[in-house]
Predict the structure.
Amino acid sequence: MLRMNFIRSPRITLTVKVTFNSRIPTTPYLVRFASSNSVNITTAHFDACWPQLRQQGWQLVSMAEKSHNYASQSIADSSGRGIEKIYTLKDYARTWAFLTQISMKSHAARHHPYIETQYNKVKVTLHTDDIKDLSPLDLDMAQSFDKYAVGLVKKSASK
C-alpha cells in the first residue's frame, strides 16, 4: 500500500512522507519551494542597480526571444525580462574556477542561471521563471558574479 501525507508549514516547505508498509519506518522527504525569489523587482531597485550592471557589460534581454535557444522546458515557456553577460576568461582552468564559484552561489541561493560555456567563454542569463521577470535576487547575483570574475577575466587590449 502506498500512502502519501502532505504537510504544509508557513515557510512553504512541503513534507512528503511515503509509507509502503506500516511496519517499515520511512524518512520524510522535504521539497522546498524558492518563494523568496518570487518577488517582482521594483522600478526604484532596478533603476538604482541597472546603470552599474550595464557599465559592467550586462545586457537586458527578452526571454521570449531567447526561448528557442535553450533545450530547457522552463525557459522555452518563459517571457519577460532577463539580464545576460558574456565573460571571456584567461584560460580553461579559470573558466571552470569561475563556473564552480557561480554554481555554488546559485545552489546556495536556490536560484539557478542559464549558463552556456565554451573553452574560455561563459554566457550567463539571469531570470526568475516563477514570476517570468527579473527579481531582486537576479541583480544581486549579477553583482556577485562580477566580483567572482575579478582576476579571472581576460584583459581587453587597450587602444
